[in-house]
Amino acid sequence: QQCDVTAVSGDAAIVPLGYSEFTPDNDLVWRRNGVTMFDRYRGTVLLGKEGDVTSNGSLVLLNVKKYQEGEYSGEIRDGSRPIYTTAKFLCVTAELLYGLIAEEILLDPKVDETIGRITWEKEKEIIEEWVTGRALGYYPRCRSAEQCVLDLTTGALVLKGLKPEDEGKYTVTVNNKGRAREFTLTVLTPVSKPTVTASCNETRCTLTCVGLETKSATYSWKENSDTVKDVEGNTLMVEKSGDLHKRYSCVFSNPKSGKESDPLTEMDLFLGESSSFSFVTSSLYD
User: Fold this and answer.
1) What count of other Cβ atoms lies within 10 Å of the Cβ of residue 30?
2) Which GO terms of the cellular component aspect does the record hold (predicted)?
């Protein structure tokens, strides 16, 4: 199914009406998969509430659930006669989460109702399930509080002691309403200390930063304390400027950790005796 509107589960979504002549006096109906969810007739909201639509008639969905994925149709009516219709397919995608190996991660379903029953699954296998405050079973990943903690008020699940095998897709179902939220978890290792080398002539240097390959890692550069813009990758070309105190450093990072090199000055690059340098690095996240 082609997606006309895409939202991350738990976020807000706007499904556009697209009727340029819309006024708040128009009779308006919104349906999801054929079932009416908003109806305003002659200025009176018969189903839903005023905040469910914008001033231009578009549909507002807050804290979008996975089970709300589907076709949404909007209709402008003149009495019982439709004068404009539109249909949009909403896709609800998983939230991307990153955790560090051996640490913990919070999976928050953003529950907006009282929880009677909650089920957490990883790749369609149950890892935690409770009904009215009572566990229905004990599953290998969440057998004890040293492995998992479930907040029965918010529905949030904490996975402790992350391992590589914890990577994957997690879903939560609340009160048997279908899957509310999805998460895709990536487990990362802390980035290594990068090594930076410089190859120079009398007026120009090429700086190269190398760290041990790891998932989701990126390189960036700093000139003095400012990030160098419009530079991607692990190399940086620098020109001799005459400012001997100008500093360059490399940042090697992933979404959960980062290390920055000690600065190298223009004096080091153009007045030093060697054209190759190594940096001692320090953590950005200490």
Assistant:
1) 24
2) membrane
Q: How many domains does the chain have?
A: 3
One domain for residues 171 and 230: no
List phi, psi (to 5°) of 56: -105, 15
Alpha carbon distance 104, 8 (integer Å):
22
Quick: pLDDT tens for 132-147.
Answer: 878 887 788 988 889 9
Encoded tokens for 31:
């349906």
Instruction: Name which of 194, 203, 205 is nearest 275 in CA terms.
Output: 205
Question: What six digits make up the tokens of 221?
Answer: 């550069």
Dist CA 269 CA 198 (whole Å): 8
Q: Are residues 183 and 203 in the same domain?
A: no
Please state, in angstroms and as integers, the Cα–Cα distance from residue 144 to each residue in 77, 82, 148, 169, 171, following that order: 57, 58, 6, 21, 20
- At 17-58, the pLDDT tens digits run 999 999 888 999 999 999 999 999 998 999 999 999 999 999
> What integer pLDDT is reported at residue 272 of this predicted model?
58
> Do 174 and 240 fall into the same domain?
no
Closest C-alpha to 65, from 11, 119, 118, 5: 11
Q: What are phi and psi of 270, to 5 degrees?
A: -105, -10
Question: Residue 34 sits in which domain range?
Answer: 5-93
CATH number at residue 52: 2.60.40.10
pLDDT band at 253 (very low <50, low <70, confident <90, very high): very high
Q: Are 32 and 22 in contact (CB under 8 A)?
A: no
**CA 90, CA 5: separation in Å to the nearest integer?**
5
